[in-house]
């Protein structure tokens, strides 16, 4: 497969005229029907150009590769694809941000906790835990938790999680609405099959019955061929709708999996927030009431275990989420390509 040059909305607009030359020219003969067709074509082309302004890279490649699909007639499909890939990739971006937060936690908060506990053990063993002054280094370490504002996940990251969750939920609603529309079209096509077939064959049969002379001159009426023609048209329409349904189903399933993974990450982040808050409260209590340093450090030891356990769970869930989202997006991309290329599978 040839490697395509970087995409841009300007380049895509230039390619419209080569891939779909009729998009740029219209019939010159003045008539009301021509004006309506021209108006609708121009409106669809305007919607298409609006979608191309912020088009996702994967959608751009499909647009360039799948010449069998004329996006001028269905700019909403292009918009849906663009929103799906943008939303899916926002989850990948969220996972990358979370990995950076976890690395920072290992370097900052866990290191500070270990250092505080180590200094506490040294001072406790050195003075047999009898003198409050012996915990001077420990108290200095404890002050750092509030003075330095050690926080693994800030408000900006929590906002990203909420936005990502909301975008995924909205995407599922849009995909479900699209699925309902496809099911309606399938029911209409199946319902009209018998009517259309009868409408095509009835005149031929009537002509054969009334005019045997004509039939004798021109040969037998090709009723079978007419029936096959009507059946082939029906099968083609049905197959196209089924491919579209398969593509939308793959997007919906991938989005639902991503939503569940983001919800799990959200719960773990909330747990991490609770642990961090408890660590800061315990440290502040020990600093203000030095007679309780030994008791507070026992609580810090427990919070340290909770913190590391939560960080391990978050790291595992982040890798799991990123892998599932990437796999779902790849599978959906293949099904979308098969639909847009009219049944041709991607090599």
Automatic annotation (TrEMBL):
One of its GO terms (cellular component) is membrane. The chain crosses the membrane at residues 194-218. Residues 165-192 form a coiled coil. It is found in: Membrane. Keywords: Coiled coil, Membrane, Transmembrane, Transmembrane helix. The keyword Cytoplasm does not apply. Pfam families: DUF677. The keyword Transmembrane applies. Belongs to the UPF0496 family. This is Uncharacterized protein. It comes from Eruca vesicaria subsp. sativa. The lineage of its organism: Eukaryota, Viridiplantae, Streptophyta, Embryophyta, Tracheophyta.
């Amino acid at each position: 497969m040839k490697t395509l040059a970087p995409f841009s909305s300007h380049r895509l607009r230039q390619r419209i005229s080569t891939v779909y030359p009729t998009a740029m020219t219209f019939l010159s003969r003045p008539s009301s029907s021509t004006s309506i067709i021209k108006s609708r074509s121009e409106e669809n082309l305007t919607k298409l150009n609006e979608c191309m302004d912020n088009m996702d890279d994967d959608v751009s490649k499909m647009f360039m590769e799948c010449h069998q699909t004329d996006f001028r007639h269905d700019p909403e499909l292009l918009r849906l694809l663009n929103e799906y890939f943008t939303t899916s990739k926002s989850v990948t971006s969220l996972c990358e941000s979370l990995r950076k937060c976890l690395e920072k936690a290992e370097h900052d908060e866990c290191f500070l906790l270990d250092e505080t506990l180590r200094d506490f053990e040294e001072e406790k063993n050195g003075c047999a835990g009898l003198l409050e002054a012996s915990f001077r280094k420990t108290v200095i370490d404890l002050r750092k938790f509030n003075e330095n504002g050690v926080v693994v996940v800030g408000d900006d990251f929590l906002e990203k999680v909420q936005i990502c969750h909301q975008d995924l939920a909205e995407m599922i609603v849009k995909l479900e609405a699209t699925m309902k529309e496809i099911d309606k079209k399938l029911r209409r096509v199946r319902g009209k099959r018998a009517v259309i077939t009868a409408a095509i064959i009835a005149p031929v049969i009537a002509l054969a019955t009334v005019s045997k002379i004509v039939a004798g001159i021109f040969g037998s009426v090709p009723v079978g061929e007419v029936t096959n023609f009507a059946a082939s048209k029906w099968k083609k329409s049905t197959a196209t709708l089924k491919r579209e349904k398969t593509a939308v189903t793959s997007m919906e399933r991938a989005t639902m999996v991503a939503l569940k993974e983001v919800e799990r990450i959200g719960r773990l982040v909330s747990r991490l927030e609770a642990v961090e808050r408890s660590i800061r409260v315990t440290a502040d209590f020990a600093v203000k009431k030095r007679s309780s340093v030994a008791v507070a450090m026992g609580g810090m030891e427990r919070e340290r275990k909770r913190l590391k356990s939560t960080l391990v769970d978050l790291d595992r869930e982040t890798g799991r989420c990123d892998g599932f989202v990437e796999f779902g997006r790849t599978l959906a991309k293949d099904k979308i390509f098969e639909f847009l290329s009219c049944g041709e599978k991607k090599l």
